[in-house]
Structure prediction request, 498 residues.
Amino acid sequence: MSNVKLWLDDHHFVEVPPARPSEDEIVTMAAVRDMSSGMAYLPNPDEILRKAGRKIDVYRTLYYDAMVRACTQQLSSAVKALEWDLDRGRSKNRYKRECVEWLRDFDFQSFIDGYVEAWNHGYQPFEIPWQQTVRGNLIMPKVALAKPQEWFAYDPNTWWKYFTKDNRDGIPIDPATKNFLFAAIDASYDNPYGIGALSGAFWPVTFKRGGIKFWLLFVEKFGVPHVMIKVPASATDTERSQALSAGQRMIQDAVLVLTDTQSYETMEVDIKGGGEAHRSFLSFLNDEISLSIIHQTMTSDVSDNGGGYASSKTGESILNSAAFALARQIEKGMNTILRWIAEVNWNTQESPSLMLYERRDVDKDLAERDDKLSTALDKSGLRLTRSYFTSAYYLDDEQIEEKPAGATPATPATFAEPGTFPDQAAVDAMLDTFADADLQQQIAPAVQPVIDFVKRARSYREVEDGLASVYSDMDTERLQQTIAMMYFLAEMQGRQDA
Prediction:
C-alpha cells in the first residue's frame, strides 16, 4: 500500500505513512511557509502593527496615555496584592524549604511587572542568570530580567533567537536552556508571540490624540467671542483691509478706531453641543482602552446610567478575573523555574509549585465552611486533622502547636490529630472482651453460604443476579445477639456521658 499524499499547495506535497503513526510533525510551519525570502525567523503576526507599519516598541508609547497607565497599574496592583505559597506536591519537604527561602529573597515584584508587560505586549522574554548560594551547595536563579521584546524573534526551525549588532539574522537559543524564559499570552501554533492587550488599545489611543488636537483647534477658533466689523457696501478693498487690521489690533489692545460709516459687535458661538459630543467620544475611547486591558469599563456607565455600587462590585469581580488570569500565567512561569531548580540541584522534576491566592477567601469563606464541617464531624466522633489544616490554610507545621492541657476550646470547631474519644474507648474496651476465635465463630456461619455460592458461580453476572437468594441460608442468630448487646452497651455509655 502506497503512502498517502498530503498536498500543501498545487505543486508540493508530503507523504504520510499509512500504517504506523508518525512520531514527528508532518505539517510544520517551516514546510508550509516560505522562509527563503531572506528573513530567517517568523515576524510578529500582530495585525495592528502590520497594518500600521510599526514595530512592537510603538506599544510602549501608549503608556503616556493616562487611561492606559491607570489600567496597567490597577492590574499590576491587583496581582501584587495576592498572597503566595508553595505546594510541596510529590517533592520532598526539604526541596520546598529551600525554594521558599530562595523565593523570599527573589525579586518577585519585578517578575510580576515582567508578566504585566507580557499581558500588554503579548510576550515577554526573561533572561535568568544563576548563582551559587551563600551556603555553597545549591545553584539558584539570581534574577529574572525582562528584556525588550524587539531583541528576540521566533524561528519555527529552531526556537527563539536573539539579535546582536553583528548578527541581524539572529543567534538561536537552545530550547533546553535554563537561562531564558518566554512568557506569552494567548499564544498559538501560528502565533507564538501571543496577543497583547495594547493591540486593542492602539487605535483608541491614536484617535484620542488626534481628537484632542482637533478639539484644541476647535476651541481656539470658536471658544472665544469674535469681533465683527461692519463696513458700507461701497467700501473699497483698502478700506476693508484697514477695518480687518483694526479688528485684529482690538483683540490684542481692546481698542478700536472706526469711522462714522463703520460699526462693530461681538459674536459668541455656542459650543455646548460640540463639547458634549467630544466628551462622549473620549468616554467611548477610554472604555475601549480599559476593556482591552482589565476587561471592564470605568467611565460613563456609572454616571450616565446610575447604579454606582452595583457597578463597582461588578467592576471589582471583572478586574479580579483579569488579575487571576494573569496570576495563572505567573504561576506557570514560576513553576517552570522551580522545576529547573529541582533538575539542577536534585536531579528530579518533582518540584514544589507556586500558588497565588486571595487571603480574604481563605480567612472567611473556607473558615466558615470548616467551622460547620467540624461541628458536623464532632457529632459523629470525628475531627479534622493537622494535615488538612496546614494544607487548606497554607500553614507550616511549626506554625501550629498543641493546645495546653486543661484549656477550654473557644468554639465547637476543633482541629487536631485523630485521637481517642471516651465513647469510642468504652466501645473498644467492650470489643476486647470478645476473643478473636469467638468472633470468628459468629461471623463464619453468616458469610460461609456467600463464599460457597461465589465459588460455584461461573460469571460475575451470575453472582450479581443470585446473591440475594443466599441470604435466607445465613445463620445470623448469634451475630444478631452480639450486635444487640453492643448497641445496648453503647447507648448506656452515651447516657452516662450526657
Residues 300-306, 412-420 have pLDDT under 50 and may be disordered. Residues 29 and 189 are 9 Å apart (CA to CA). The longest strand covers residues 83-87.
